[in-house]
Write a structure and sequence with these properties.
Blueprint lengths: L2 E11 L16 E10 L2 E7 L8 E12 L1 E3 L11 H7 L10 H10 L2 H16 L3 E4 L1 E2 L6 H11 L6 E6 L10 H16 L5 E6 L9 H13 L3 E6 L7 H8 L3 E4 L5 H9 L5 E4 L1 H6 L7 H7 L3 E3 L13 H11 L4 H15 L16 E4 L6 H4 L6 E3 L9
Parallel strand pairs: 1-4, 5-6, 7-8, 8-9, 9-10, 10-11, 11-12, 12-13
Antiparallel strand pairs: 1-2, 2-3, 4-14, 14-15
Helix pairs in contact: 3-4, 4-5, 5-6, 11-12
């Protein structure tokens, strides 16, 4: 057991509302000239450098800022193939309707295990190099019993936050037999996937012919819950619909997208804020040239908000949380502090995790270092790669 004291922290964002001596004005629990003691992947002590206890090793970050590692609570990293042409088409006005997912399904089914594993590994490395320390990974490009289970087995090599998304779209071979596909999801596919998954998710979207209706989504989520999985929902992405209502009704940890919400949806989310988080994914609106969700309306109503990447081959092939943060502030009227909280402690809450997202004694030592003196530079210097997970093989190599 060796301990390390991290020093040279010009500004430490702890997100700890109870930390003594911190600036709590924007709920970030800010400390200047701070130190953190880490042992065996756990935080042992947080406070001013002048009071830091002795440790076996010392790691000096040279006057940089440290923030809680980003928690990317929504990603689809297990896929093969390339859909850049679709992105180009959308930039000339072609609307997204969920149909392109079938192309990734074909490429993913055709890929070998080692090829898929290498693709996921490269994406995870890319995310850590941009400051992400926790990654939720969904299946959803296999859509057969074997390919969904394989996707989750590979995802589980990289994270404990794995999500079974057999209900991503109805695969083309079941296009005129939808109910048979739903039966497959809740039967043989769920049995094969549940051992490798913590969560179940479904794309509940009446505005896409490829996605699932409210009734179908309820059947899928209820079966997942009965199998011991936590619930997540893709909802209200392409238009107003039942996603939020269903997520709140079933006690889902998160309803993701929330781009089109009725007043009733916002009220439901506000009332359920202890239980259900609204996860906003503005990289998708960027990449589909769509209107952004109204984060201000949700924050003002008291809704719990998370920000995540939705990194996926169709609607947002960006794994960058700093990019998401820049969009949240510039396009969604969130303050820098609100955006940073949403991508750390907010997204941790959407995974029902208290051991990440806050730099506090007893929590995981998941921290991100910024090549800058303050967290504000994440926004101020948008597009510049200043964030990397502490101790990752990132651009800065701390
Ligand atoms: Zn998604």
């Amino acid at each position: 057991m060796t301990s390390t004291v991290v020093t040279g922290i010009a500004e430490l964002v702890t997100n700890d509302g109870l930390l003594e001596g911190a600036d709590h004005s924007e709920h970030l629990g800010l400390l200047s000239d701070a130190a953190v003691v880490v042992q065996d992947g756990q935080i042992e002590w947080v406070g001013p450098l002048s009071q830091a206890p002795a440790a076996d090793n010392r790691q000096d970050v040279g006057g940089r800022a440290i923030i809680p590692g980003f928690v990317d609570s929504h990603s689809h990293l297990v896929f093969a193939g390339d859909r850049s042409q679709e992105f180009a088409a959308r930039m000339t006005g072609v609307r997204y309707d969920g149909g392109g997912i079938a192309r990734s399904v074909d490429a993913t089914r055709a890929a070998g295990d080692d090829e898929l594993r290498a693709l996921v590994a490269a994406r995870v490395t890319e995310m850590r190099a941009q400051g992400t320390t926790t990654i939720e990974i969904k299946s959803g490009y296999g859509l057969t019993v074997q390919d969904e289970a394989r996707s989750l087995r590979i995802a589980a090599e990289f994270t404990t936050e794995t999500t079974f998304l057999g209900g991503h779209v109805v695969p083309s071979e079941f296009a005129d037999r939808r109910s048979e596909y739903v039966d497959l999801i809740i039967g043989e596919m769920l049995s094969a996937c549940a051992p490798h998954a913590r969560w179940i998710d479904v794309f509940c979207e009446p505005h896409s012919a490829h996605a699932f209706t409210e009734d179908e989504a309820r059947v899928v989520l209820s079966a997942g819950r009965d199998a011991g999985l936590g619930l997540r929902v893709h909802g209200n992405q392409l238009g107003q619909g039942p996603g939020v209502r269903l997520a709140v009704e079933l006690g889902a940890a998160s309803v993701d997208h929330c781009t089109y919400l009725s007043a009733a949806d916002v009220e439901l989310l506000a009332a359920a804020s202890d239980n259900t988080v609204a996860t906003l994914l503005p990289g998708v609106e960027f990449s589909t040239r769509s209107p952004y969700p109204d984060a201000r309306r949700l924050l003002d109503a008291g809704v719990s908000i998370a920000l995540a990447s939705d990194c996926n081959p169709g609607t947002c092939y960006s794994s960058s949380i700093p990019f998401v943060l820049a969009l949240a502030v510039r396009e969604m009227n969130m303050t820098p502090a609100e955006a940073l909280l949403a991508a750390t402690v907010g997204s941790a809450k959407s995974l029902r995790r208290k051991d990440i997202g806050v730099i506090r004694a007893g929590n995981c030592a998941d921290m991100t270092v910024l090549d800058a003196p303050s967290y504000l530079h994440l926004f101020y210097r948008a597009g510049v790669p200043i964030a990397s997970a502490l101790n990752s093989v990132g651009p800065h190599g701390y």
